[in-house]
Every structure is written in C-alpha cells, then in structure tokens.
Amino acid sequence: IAWGATNLGADVEDLFIETFNGQGQYQTPEGWKRPEIHHEIIHVRGKPDVALDVVVTRHGPVISDLIPGETRKLALQWAPLKDPAFVSYPFFELDSAQNWEEFRKAVSLMGGPSLNLVYADVDGHIGYQAEGRIPLRASPTNGVPVAGNDNAHEWTGVVPFDELPSVLDPPSGILATANARITPDKYPYLLSSEWMAPYRTERIYRVLQSGRKFGQEDMLALEMDVQSEFDHFCAERFVYGVDHARQPSSRARAAADLMRSWDGQVTVDSAAATLTVLARSELWHMLLEPKLGADYQLYHWGMQSVALENILLQQPPRWLPANYANYDELLAAAVEAVVSSPGAPRSLSSWTWGKARPFRLEHPILGEIPLLRRWAGPGRYAASGDGYTVKQMGHGESERFQQAPSERMTVDLSNLDASNMNIVTGESGQIFSPHYLDQWQAWLDGSSFIFPFSDGAVQPAKKHELRLEPAR
Predict the structure, then answer these.
(1) pLDDT tens digit string along 400-409?
(2) 419-427, long-range: CB within 8 Å, 24+ apart, which pairs?
C-alpha cells in the first residue's frame, strides 16, 4: 500500500476565561481552587537565569501575558496538554499494513495531529480516511474565549473513529486533499471551526477529471502546478474596476493591462501576480479598516479568500466604504494605492513575483550566524506559486514563517522501484555533509529522484551507509 497526508486543521484547543479571587484561587463548579504553579528556570548563556512561574488551571496554562493588552485570565486548553494520547503515531502498524482494513486499523490508533490520509494499493483500490482524537464539547465555543467557571463548554470525549470521514473506491475514481473542508453540511460533529480555502483542492480535481491517463511526469507536474483561479478571478475584477472608474491614472491603466493579459499562472516572472496580490491586500485594508480600525491588521482567517470572492461577486452595499460611489471606484483605488506606493518600481512590468515575494529558507539558529549562514540553508530564492496554488507557497506575517511543500512523492504501484520522491533540502542534517542540500535544486526546479523500494534496487543505488548500533 501507499499513503500520503495533508493537515486536516482540527479544532483541538479552546480559551477559557478564568475568574480569580484576591487569594489567587480560581472559580470552578465545585468552588474555589488553587492553581498549580510550575516554577521554571531558563538558563541564558552569558546572562542571569530567568525565573518564570506558569499558572495552570484545570483547563491549562494561563497565557494572558502573551497577548498584548489582554486583561482577562485566559487559560489554554490544548489536546496534547489535556491528554498525551492526543499525540501518537503507530508507524510500525501503519508501515506494515497490507490492505485497506489493516490500514484503517493502524490509523484508528493515531491520536494526532489530525490529518487527511489518502490511500492506494497494488490491487487498484484508493481511499480516504480522516484521523485523530478530536474533542467533543458540551456546547461549541465558536472560536472565542468562553467562561471557565462552569462546565458549559467542557470536553466530553472524542469523535468516534468510525464516524470520521472515510471512503473507499469513490465512484469518481478520484480523491484529493489540500487542507480544505471535508465534511458535508449535516455532518454531526465539529472537526474544525476553520477550513482552508477550496481552490487548491478544486484545481487538483479539475486536472484529474480531464479524462486523460496520467503518468509519473504528469503527477509531478500537478504537484508543481501554479495556476491560481482565485488570483485570476481577482485580477479580472481589478481590470474591470479600472476600466470603469472615472479617472484612473496612467499607471493604474498600465497595471490593468498587465493583469488583463494574465492567465493566472503565478510564475516567478509574472508582474500581474504581484499586482493582483498586493491590490487584494490593499482592498482588504479598505474594506476592513472602516469597521475594525487598526485591528483590521489582526483579522485573518482560512476562508478569507472565499469571503472576498463573495463580496466581489455580490457587491453588497453594506460592505462598500462610505467614501466610494461604487465597487469599481473601490477596486480602482486599491490598484492606485499599489502602483503609487513607495516600493513600486517605475516599470511595473519589472515588478515580478520572484522579486516581490522571494522564498526564504534558512536554518532557524545557524542562519543567524554570519559565518555559517551560507552553509546552513539556501537563503532567498525566487519561487513560483502562492497560497492558492497546488504548489502552495505561503508567506506569513514574518519572513521567518513561510510554508511550502515538505516533500513530493509519486508511488508507482505497478513497479514500486520506479517511484520517485524529493524532500526540500537533503537527507542529512549535518551542514557540512555533501547530502545536506543535495535535493534542494530538484525541489526548487520541480524535478525528482528515483525512490528505490526493494532490497534489490536499494543496494546498487546506495551511496553511503550510516550504521547506528546500541552501546554494549
């Protein structure tokens, strides 16, 4: 069998508002109780030790000090802290499974983090199984802090494994997961309060439904696919807005022309991708700031793109800022703000995606040491794709937080030795090893390596052997 995984994004944490009295006790349904106090000593090289007292209630550690401006006592209830069984991976059972039944039995032992697992076997079966211990709540929290002095929102168990989403051999013959919603409207359990946008999953289905036969190269090309239907939709809306605005500037019209001829491919040399993404960010600023003030910068969620798509399709009057006559003027103003920004180059066509949004990959510690930085990671590179492409390349609030495919693997179930796999950098974690970065260029360019499976194929392919033996 072969299997792969994407993040399910299960809701496994809640914030509880704890009520404390003057004696340092917190309120529970059984009365006032003293929290646990964990005295932590953090040793800092060359500096005095840092003493930290962690206050822990029945729900978990109080984390209010981590939230600027927070005055309430918020305790974090998180599944792995609540019960270590929430984190367990029985890989021996999973890797020795021979069929769908044995696979599901192994998966049923998994605690989390929760994943979407796809399955295939040499007999031609394919399947999907959600996994993980996902909490059941007495009543939903709806993603906001709730009172901790009663049991109204307590965890009462976990979603039964046999009632997690699962399918074997769907009639379509296609299964795809890319962090998007996996439950129908009337599904009886809350698995997640926030799914990721559906565009990547939709793109995979659209390609696989083309009716042609797919080989190894085709699957690798799909893993590297950088077509963004959402970005393309937004570009068309910006173009329409500029075309119908009263007095757009010449630079806004030039930006519209670049977006007009764009096919939605988020390539490193695309200026249209840069203009679209930056204009969309500016548009959210214009939509949210009148309602939220400065807090608009904190307002991000997984389905934000779907919300924007609906706003642009339906153009509800309640969302139109007061100082704009219509949505065309609003869209044109978002483009104007981008092309007149200090960072905008004189030639908009030179504002390519690879330059505007480079991908940074560095060792989190060694990358801070100047003499070792060049050895510790590739650094900054131009990379295609964004958060809405199958090849997901996401840029977080900090350049330190970026997301990208952790590996690409295609399994040939007719000949396992013909499978291929590529991980981001290399097999070795030693920075001066020749294998530390020897897979990086393939990962960046979209090529891969034969992944020998049988002993007869592994031995002649072997380049180096590291043998670890227990001390005697």
Answers:
(1) 446 889 999 9
(2) 419/450, 419/451, 419/453, 420/216, 420/220, 420/448, 420/449, 420/450, 420/451, 421/448, 421/449, 421/451, 422/447, 422/448, 422/449, 424/361, 425/361, 425/377, 425/378
Q: How far apart are CA 334 and CA 255, in angstroms?
A: 11
pLDDT, one tens digit per residue, over 42-61 is 999 999 999 999 999 999 99
Q: Is 330 helix (H, G, I), strand (E, B) or coil?
A: helix
Q: How many other C-beta atoms are found inside a 10 Å radius of the C-beta of residue 300?
A: 10
Global pTM reads 0.91
Identify any residues that bridge with 407 across adjacent strands, giving them in sequence order: 423
Q: What is the largest CA-CA distance in the chain?
A: 83
Distance CA 8, CA 265 (A): 26
Nearest to 79 by CA among 39, 37, 136: 136
Q: How many residues does the chain have?
A: 472
| CA pair distance 427, 432, nearest whole angstrom | 12
Distances, alpha carbon 333 to alpha carbons 236, 309, 370, in Å:
15, 18, 42
